[in-house]
């Protein structure tokens, strides 16, 4: 029977659906294993060959674990809300829901062709009200919770309300936006609105004034990773920094737990370090500085309290409220111009850019340790969200302060004995302190650090600050609260209505609050988000339903929130919903959550290190506090797949002609390289007729060939439509089959590394599958499999493979597994092996990689159940032992010939046999050997 991959793959894909092969339910008799991919956003372009890389890698592992007897959960769904569908709606008027469904249908068609073992019965779509019901529910829980620093967990906000009525907020240790103080009497005297404003200071989901990346053209706030070089990633529109009242999530409250949790999970060290740096824990002191000739004072945070005597200027973040307070009339125009320039840069760009910019505020601050008046500057290298948004600058011992001081001619005062700061700052935290205070000035305070080590000086200063009420010792984190509002239509609606300007939650029983219809997807003429166009978007608190806006009376009917949630809202707890996707009563049933617990293997890109992977960990920790999630960490093991890059091809057009010259002749002409569609190039040889038909301007093209062929140039670039290097997996599946695509993507290189797509090598993988098939069927379609017992050589080849592949799969070294398969099949082919005893185990071992052909051959071998339900073979070390060893025979260190000996042959017997061999006589040449050296299982060296 011929290997007809098209028929075989369609047959088994159909049967898997009919027999529900991949549907899974909880089974207490089996150990669970949960495999999850970061689910895709369904774009209009569909999949290219780079997209399935991670899915194939995780699918191999999922199939492998099932063969090992695990109950494997391997779901798939769609991150269906997103800006592209909304932009398309703005351009065409087509509702984003229609675009999204069409795109999902296209994705599903492509995914099905590749033969994944996804349990599609669990599919989720973030735009489905049945799904975002639980996103809204979680948001309400966050709104109705605060974070207790003493207990290190989220607690009900009602606890605070009761405590405030009795004690005020005295002794309260809770995460908050700003430190405030009030008594029980003051609390009880406040109005409902005033109480709500105070509670907002503590809620985990809260409304707050915050700096955002505002894109006027798109009419929305953008996340940092949606902004590149000051413009929006989508559309390239200008983005500025702007302060807005936004919904936020108090992620910062969980900073220490997010850090601690990294020690309990199996992620790469580099990814953990990225998260640690993003969270940015630092221990230091907050110190008060008074403003000269003013009643104003402000707080700075420093991790280097020992450097207080070296402060020669202060720097404010451009967004700091102190800027307006400290800018003098003489400096206002210059400051305003600087602030306008910095609005166009995101925080991420400011962190990365080392160029020096700044402006003097006109004010001075008094150093509480020296009494000196130091100038207060404004610069965008200071960020408003870290510490207090104000820093003390010690240029002798900080590289950015040093660059700033050099640029603006400010004093640089060294504080470590013997350090040279003539060319660069001295940043090391070792040495003996000096100039603290300087010996030539009258001390301003009774603290001296001179002669102490830096470590001693830090602790001494922190103690002094605390004892003299100059500030307080504090742990700080760089991690910010997450901005949770977007001024878009296509996103989850907030289950929030407004009464007297304050937000209130709609009843939990009324969820989900569904996205309304709107006439336009753009912001309104008055600048409101697109939901401002909705005519039926008000909440009736009596009837508990959405009603027409005209019924708003601010008595029982109130306006609903016009913002929608951001993209990460729907992807933060989706792993829990996959466990129990059809539950109408809860996000997940506790018993089901107790069974699946968390994700054992999570596969996705490193680009999510400081976005999704922070937010989802925070979200899950909150649900853990609520008793919803049984595990504090959502993703136990994480594998980051690399990127498949495009391999572009080029043709070379001779200038001012329509003639194209082949690669190796192009240097003879003045040419322009032009990207050409890689799908009309094979092994870098251009299909001339296809090229002429590709675009109208090439219809009359002429060619200068080499050896009758047109050879294209090539380069490795990002896979994109503009470079015509996008390879559609459908084309590969149609030409070679899904099993070839799956194996070839894994054969390209290690899963974690990026590598270029190169179709030139795919033929070899396809030939391998055909050779594998030929172990079962002859060229004349004769069935070859027999029940004869296997030989030692055949068993050795098979068990060598099983050992290798078992180890490789555990390490995700799939590329070396495929090499091992090729070696084994070649060995068995040369041995003319057709033994069922061998081939059955070979089919099971290959099944995770090439499931279609293995299902077919498993069926041919007489099995009535799927190969998925077979048992992963165990290798036997006995078969791997060598019966004989091939020794290299050397004379005076030079190899001359080889001899076979039994593996357990004694050294004396080996020596005697070597000397007796007639070939040895030629090299001994009648002389008496001085000695014979036998290196066990390797060489024999005769020293003459």
Quick gist of this model?
With 944 residues, this protein is of the alpha+beta class.
Offer a few descriptive terms.
944 residues, globular, seven-stranded mixed sheet
Can you walk through the features of this model?
Strand 25 (644-654) and strand 26 form a beta hairpin. The protein starts with a helix and ends with a strand. The protein is 33% helix and 19% strand. The protein is an alpha+beta fold. It has 29 helices and 36 strands.
| Biggest sheet character | 7 strands, mixed
Q: Strand fraction band? A: 15-25%
How would the global form be characterised? globular
Give the rounded overall mean pLDDT: 93
The end-to-end span amounts to 62 Å
Unreliable stretches, pLDDT < 50, 5 or more residues? none
Gyration radius, to the nearest Å?
Answer: 35 Å
Number of strands: 36
Task: Please state the structural category.
Answer: alpha+beta
Q: Tally the helices: what do you get?
A: 29
The helical percent reads 25-40%
């Amino acid at each position: 029977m011929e290997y007809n991959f098209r028929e075989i793959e369609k047959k088994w894909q159909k049967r898997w659906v009919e027999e529900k092969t991949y549907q899974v339910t909880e089974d207490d008799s089996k150990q669970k294993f949960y495999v999850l991919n970061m689910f895709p956003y369904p774009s209009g372009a569909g999949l290219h060959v780079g997209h399935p890389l991670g899915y194939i890698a995780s699918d191999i592992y999922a199939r492998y674990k099932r063969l090992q007897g695990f109950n494997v959960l391997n779901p798939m769904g769609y991150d269906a809300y997103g800006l592209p569908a909304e932009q398309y709606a703005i351009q065409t008027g087509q509702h984003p829901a229609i675009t999204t469904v069409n795109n999902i249908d296209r994705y599903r068609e492509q995914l099905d062709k590749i033969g994944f073992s996804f349990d599609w019965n669990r599919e989720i779509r973030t735009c489905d009200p049945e799904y975002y019901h639980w996103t809204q529910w979680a948001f309400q829980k966050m709104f109705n919770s605060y974070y207790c620093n003493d207990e290190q967990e989220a607690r009900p906000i009602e606890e605070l309300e009761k405590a405030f009525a009795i004690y005020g907020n005295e002794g309260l240790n809770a995460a908050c936006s700003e430190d405030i103080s009030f008594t029980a009497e003051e609390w009880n005297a406040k109005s409902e609105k005033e109480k709500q404003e105070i509670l907002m200071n503590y809620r985990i989901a809260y409304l707050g004034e915050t700096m955002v990346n505002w894109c006027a053209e798109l009419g929305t706030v953008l996340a940092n990773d949606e902004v590149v070089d000051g413009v929006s990633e989508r559309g390239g529109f200008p983005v500025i920094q702007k302060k807005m009242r936004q919904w936020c999530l108090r992620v910062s409250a969980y900073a220490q737990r997010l850090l601690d949790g990294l020690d309990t999970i199996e992620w790469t060290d580099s990814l953990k370090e990225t998260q640690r740096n993003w969270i940015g824990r630092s221990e230091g002191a907050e110190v008060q500085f008074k403003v000269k000739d003013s009643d104003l004072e402000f707080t700075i945070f420093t991790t280097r309290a020992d450097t207080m005597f070296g402060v020669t200027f202060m720097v404010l973040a451009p967004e700091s409220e102190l800027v307006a307070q400290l800018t003098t009339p003489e400096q206002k125009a210059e400051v305003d111009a600087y602030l306008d320039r910095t609005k166009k840069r995101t925080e991420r760009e400011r962190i990365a850019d080392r160029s020096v910019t700044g402006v003097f505020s006109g004010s001075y601050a008094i150093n509480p340790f020296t009494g000196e008046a130091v100038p207060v500057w404004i610069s965008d290298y200071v960020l408003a969200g870290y510490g207090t948004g104000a820093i003390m600058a010690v240029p002798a011992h900080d590289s950015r302060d040093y660059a700033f001081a050099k640029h603006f001619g400010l004093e640089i005062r060294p504080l470590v004995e013997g350090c040279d700061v003539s060319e660069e700052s001295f940043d090391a935290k070792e040495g003996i302190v000096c100039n603290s205070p300087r010996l030539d000035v009258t001390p301003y305070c009774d603290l001296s650090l001179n002669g102490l080590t830096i470590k001693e000086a830090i602790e001494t200063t922190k103690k002094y600050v605390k004892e003299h009420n100059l500030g307080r010792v504090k742990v700080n984190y760089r991690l910010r609260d997450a901005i949770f509002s977007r001024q878009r239509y296509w996103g989850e609606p907030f289950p929030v209505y407004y009464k007297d300007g304050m937000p209130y939650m709609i009843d939990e029983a009324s969820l989900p609050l569904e996205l309304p219809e709107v006439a336009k997807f753009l912001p309104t003429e008055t600048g409101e988000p697109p939901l401002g166009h909705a005519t039926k978007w008000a909440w009736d608190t009596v009837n508990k339903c959405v009603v027409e806006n005209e019924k708003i009376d601010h008595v029982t009917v109130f306006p609903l929130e016009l913002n929608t949630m951001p993209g990460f809202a729907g992807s933060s707890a989706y792993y829990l919903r996959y466990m129990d996707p059809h539950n109408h009563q809860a996000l997940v049933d506790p018993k089901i959550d107790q069974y699946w617990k968390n994700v054992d293997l999570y596969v996705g890109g490193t680009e999510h290190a400081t976005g999704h992977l922070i937010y989802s960990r925070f979200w899950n920790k909150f649900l853990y506090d609520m008793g919803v999630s049984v595990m504090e960490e959502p993703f136990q093991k994480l594998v980051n797949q690399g990127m498949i890059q495009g391999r572009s091809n080029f043709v070379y057009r001779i200038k001012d002609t329509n003639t194209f010259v082949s690669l190796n002749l192009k240097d003879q002409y003045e040419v322009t390289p032009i990207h050409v569609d890689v799908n009309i190039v094979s092994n870098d040889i251009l299909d001339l007729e296809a090229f002429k038909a590709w675009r109208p301007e090439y219809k009359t093209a002429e060619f200068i060939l080499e050896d009758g062929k047109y050879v294209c140039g090539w380069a490795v670039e990002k896979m994109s439509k503009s470079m015509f290097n996008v390879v559609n997996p459908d084309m590969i599946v149609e030409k070679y089959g899904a099993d070839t695509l799956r194996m070839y993507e894994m054969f390209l290189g290690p899963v974690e590394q990026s590598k270029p797509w190169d179709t030139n090598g795919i033929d070899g993988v396809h030939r391998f599958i055909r050779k594998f098939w030929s172990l079962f069927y002859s060229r004349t379609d004769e069935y070859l499999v027999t029940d004869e017992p296997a030989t030692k050589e055949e068993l050795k080849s098979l068990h060598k493979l099983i050992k290798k592949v078992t180890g490789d799969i555990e390490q995700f070294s799939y590329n070396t597994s495929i090499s091992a398969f090729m070696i084994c099949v070649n060995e068995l082919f040369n041995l003319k092996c057709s033994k069922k005893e061998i081939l059955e185990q070979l089919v099971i071992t290959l099944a995770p990689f090439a499931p279609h052909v293995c299902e077919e051959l498993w069926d041919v071998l007489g099995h009535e159940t799927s190969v998925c339900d077979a048992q992963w073979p165990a290798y036997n070390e006995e078969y791997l032992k060598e019966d004989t060893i091939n020794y290299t025979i050397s004379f005076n260190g030079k190899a001359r010939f080889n001899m076979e000996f039994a593996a357990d042959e004694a050294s004396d017997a080996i020596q005697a046999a070597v000397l007796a061999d007639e070939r040895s006589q030629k090299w001994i040449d009648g002389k008496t050997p001085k000695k014979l050296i036998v290196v066990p299982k390797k060489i024999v060296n005769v020293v003459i």
